[in-house]
Write the structure tokens for this entry.
Amino acid sequence: MTSTAIQQRHHLTDELKPVAPAAPKPLLAAVGLIKSYESFQALKGISFDMREGEIISVLGPSGCGKSTLLQLVAGLLKPDGGQLTLGNEIIASSSVMMPPEKRGVNMVFQDYALWPHMNVFDNIAYGLHRSKMARADIQQRVQELLTMLHLEGFERRLPPQLSGGQQQRVAIARALATRPKLMLLDEPLSNLDMRLRVEMRTEMAYLFRRLGMSVFHVTHDPEEAFAMADRLLILRNGQIDQMGTPQQCFTRPASRWAASLLGAINGLRGEVINGDSGSAVRIGSSLIHGLLAPEQQNLSDHSQAIVMFRPEEAEVIERRDAAAELSLASPQERIDNTIQLQVLHCTFEGNRWRAVAQTSCGQKVYLVLAVPLEAGEHVTIKLAIRSAFIYPNEEER
């Protein structure tokens, strides 16, 4: 084979090699954002960044600052300090306020905010008409969105003639119509019943990923956030408590508060015992090993700590009837990461049972089980180390 042929062959081989996808570009960045309402500070200097094509879910309870943050991004509020950057432009700071219509962002509101006197077609086309798009192009774009959102045949219906799920799809189609740089979702599923919420969060996540949309999503529902997000931004009292992938936040909550928000509602207090295998917590006669918070190196020996765990992650390994006495094993006989409980109450929840029990020192424990327990019986539960989260027993800020 000639040298020229070899070179041509190498060139063809190089062309056929898979090309690594380009790293996503930065899209939205917040630096030291502050916002107050008179004496109440809603945001306390938060900073984060977001990449193109990423879905970020801002998760937290009412009053944590998530709606304020969304309105700052949308251009409905002006920050008192810090700045927001979209692409390469500063869109908001204490001295800069880019108008909402120039930011290239669209919002789907909690109540959908559809024009009640306009039919589905005209609601979707509203932004296109305002941008003075040609009529034929509007017709084509709206038809694409009707097909994409499964709204064919509903073009002439008014919003009151639609179900909640249909209204939500119209609101999403209207927001997508002008091809925004960033989609904002304000509690988009809160007005739907439980079945529709589960169905729609799956549809939305699939749609946005298929389109490669950048989405900034606000919710108080952890399950909705898990279903939607590439990363979670957990807000507490106007500050970021944790930011990471859903898996990172779920498996290593950064604080007691985050652990509880993400389902670890059981909290048992005890004394820290440091040994060769690290920190453990003594709760009565039990010794519990677990995971410390991601940035927690160790806990002081004999200090007070709290072990958090989820009701469904405790395994019942022994049951004794109500007449049996609670076994008080010696430290030598004790099996680590087991806790003895007495069942107080158990209820049926369709495909599972939920029990309330208590330790010998009266601390409550909630369990989710595949089989029922009887009130009064004694059980031993076992916790996997990866399911037990250990935090200092301090007052939450």
About this structure: Residues 8-16, 328-333 have pLDDT under 50 and may be disordered. The first strand starts at residue 26 and ends at 37.
